[in-house]
Structure formats: structure tokens, C-alpha cells
Amino acid sequence: MPFTLLKDRALISVSGPDAEHFLQNILTTDLDVLGESEAKPGALLTPQGKILFDFLISRAGENALRLECRADISDDFVRQLMLYKLRAKVEIAKREQALVSVAWGKESIALQSDSTAVADRRFGGESVTRSYAGAAQADDGAAWQAFRIAHGIAESGADYALGDAFPHDVLLDETGGVGFRKGCYVGQEVVSRMQHRGTARRRVLIVRSELPLPAAGTELTVEGRPVGALGSSAGTTGLAIARIDRVKAALDAGQPILAGDVPVTLTIPAWAKFSFPQETVSAEEA
After folding, report:
1. How confident is residue 133, by pLDDT bands cut at 50, 70 and 90?
2. Considering the chain, what is the average pLDDT of its residues?
3. By CB count within 10 A, which of 31, 69, 95, 265 is most buried?
4. According to the model, what pLDDT value does residue 284 have?
């Protein structure tokens, strides 16, 4: 059933007269274009532009915003936000016993009447609704994971390690998670340089195979040379962060791509705007 309670998520509230200004100055998301009933992805970066924390952000009333993140990183996230608070008139608090429900497809309509419901904007034209009132009953979440993977939506922990990926690597530049017209934020110079120079080479790709995929973290290789690493999977479909120039070189040369010992195909998510580069690296460079 496309309706589930996500038991591994936490909610952080940032409220007060300076709440939006405070977050706008440190996060990648452009809050000036965040609607009242939508959730957009984003990140808090290191000064070097790597993702330190990832989240979904939405409005939660006047002068209040809601950050939904992994439960296991929520306390560290709160502490990091407090370091940036200084004299800003904001209150930062983790909501205890948070209940996060998600529905997609026709089932998403059932959640939209909930006062806390927001549209998850990461899925292109797909209807995905999140609720923070615990409307769904708990299950194993397998259907949600399969849906997320099939649509090329990567999340930290499952698909990449925090501190090891740039926003472009995990497509935050294409899902509304990076504001390229906003002012400065932590790590902004590096992210802007990658955008304007077109130097992003690691990207999320959808992995498909005729056999069950191996464990997350398994290397993707072409003739023994690494081109990326497998993330989460659901049966024969998974996600990977891979060097798209090396993948293109393998495709052009007709060389098989392996996840461990399993032959795979790699494709760009249907909604994504990026493409494989026209110029490819040679086998020696790969």
C-alpha cells in the first residue's frame, strides 16, 4: 500500500522573528520561494561544500519552519544549528516522538486534508504527500523505499555518507534543494563554482539488473576500474552515485558495468535535466 509511517525520521522546529533569515543565511534551500504547503530538500554544508546534514524543510506557521531529518543525526543537527545561532532571535528545538507519514499516488489525496500535510517536491510530477500528525499505520516501509529508488531520490545513510558528497552529487541542484539566486550560505562558493563551470561529474543514477543487487557500498566497476558505488536497492533496482563521464565511456565502448559480480545497466532518472557528457574519458583516464 502506498502509505506508510516513517519510523526513522525526526522533526526540528526553528521559530522566532529571525527564523527564516537565520536559516536562509546558512542552508542551501532558497526559502524565498518555499510555499506554504510544500516540503523542499536541502542541506547544511561544510565550508568546503560537502553535505554535513540533509533534510526536508517546510513551513509550520508564522515565523516557524520545520526541518525533517534522519532521527539518528537529529541531535547533532540541533547542536550544529545552535553553533550558528549567535544573537539571532530564534528557538531551535527537537520535537519528541515525531510521527512522519508519507503517501504517494492516489493514496496521497487522503493525507492532503491533514493540517500538517505538505507536498514533497523531490519527485517531479509525481504526487507525494508528507504528514506530521502520524496518520499512517506503521509497516516495514519496503514499498516506500522501492518507490523512492525507482524515482532516483537519494538520501543520506542509505545512499551516501554525510561529509562525502556535494549537493550536485545527489541531485539537490535539480530537486529544488539549492538556491542559485539567493545570497551567501555556508559552502556556497564551492557549489556555485560547480554549477557555473559545469564540473559536476558524480551523479545519482538508477541501477537495474536481472539479478538481485548486492549490498549498499558495493563498487561499480568497468574492467576492474571503479566508476561509482551502489546505494540502497529494492530487488533488482537500486541507486548509485557514479562518475557519469566514466559510465558514458563504458557505454560508448560497449563495456559491461558490474556491481560486484552482477551485470547492471545505469540510467539517468526520467525527471532529471542533466545528461551524460558528450566528451568521454579514455579507459586509461578512467
Report:
1. confident
2. 92
3. 69
4. 46
Q: Give the 3-state DSSP-derived string for 112-136, with helices as H, strands as E and coil as C.
A: HCCCCCEEEHHHCCCCEEEECCCCC
How far is residue 192's CA from residue 285's CA, in Å, rounded to a whole number?
26
Q: Could you give the CA distance from residue 107 to residue 174 in angstroms, rounded to a whole number? A: 26
What's the CA gap between 155 and 190, in Å, rounded?
A: 21
Q: Which cell numbers in the block locate residue 100?
A: 512522519
pLDDT confidence band for 115 (50 / 70 / 90): confident
Positive or negative: CA dihedral 94, 96, 102, 107: negative
Read off the C-alpha cell for 8: 526513522
Look at residues 81, 76, 60, 58 and name the one whose alpha carbon lies nearest to residue 68: 58
Backbone angles phi, psi at 279, to 5 degrees: -90, 130
Q: Which residue has the cell 504547503?
A: 37
Q: Which three cell numbers stand for residue 61?
A: 506557521
pLDDT in tens, 43-90: 999 999 999 999 999 999 999 999 999 999 999 999 999 999 999 999
In one letter, which amino acid is 77?
Answer: F
Residues 208-233: tens digit of each pLDDT: 999 999 999 999 999 999 999 999 99
What count of other Cβ atoms lies within 10 Å of the Cβ of residue 152? 23
Torsion-angle region of residue 130: left (phi > 0), alpha (psi -120 to 50) or beta?
A: beta
Alpha carbon 269 to its chain's center: 13
Task: Decide: 56 and 41 in contact? Cβ < 8 Å.
Answer: yes
CA distance 235 to 218: 15
Terminal CA-CA length for the chain = 43
Looking at residue 162, its amino acid is L
d(CA 149, CA 216): 13
| R_g over Cα of the chain | 19
User: What pairing do the DSSP bridges indicate for beta strands 257-259 and 219-222?
Assistant: antiparallel
